[in-house]
Backbone:
């Protein structure tokens, strides 16, 4: 199994994910593209000491961007929506 920091790259903290966290106990992470749902579940449970109920993954296509006359493409990446069990909570800011 890969180390935790190679599976979970960073949490995604946006307006949409904040509303999902409050309403349905769903937290979003950017994860490695080759990580599967079982690895993501184990990594989140061990890193944040919570109980995970469900994991959904999405492959996000990179956008085509332009700099002057040149076109480039951002890399594709993987997003994981992790549903936490009742009573579990992840607080990223410690407030």
Residues:
């Amino acid at each position: 199994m890969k180390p935790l920091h190679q599976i979970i790259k960073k949490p995604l903290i946006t307006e949409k994910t904040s509303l999902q966290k409050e309403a349905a106990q769903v937290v979003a992470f950017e994860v490695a593209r080759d990580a599967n749902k079982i690895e993501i579940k184990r990594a989140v449970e061990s890193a944040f000491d919570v109980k995970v109920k469900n994991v959904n993954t999405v492959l996000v296509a990179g956008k085509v961007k332009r700099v002057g006359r040149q076109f480039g493409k951002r890399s594709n990446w993987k997003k994981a929506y992790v549903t936490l069990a009742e009573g579990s909570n992840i607080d990223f800011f410690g407030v």
Observations:
- The radius of gyration is 15 Å.
- The mean pLDDT is 94.
- The chain has one domain: 4-84.
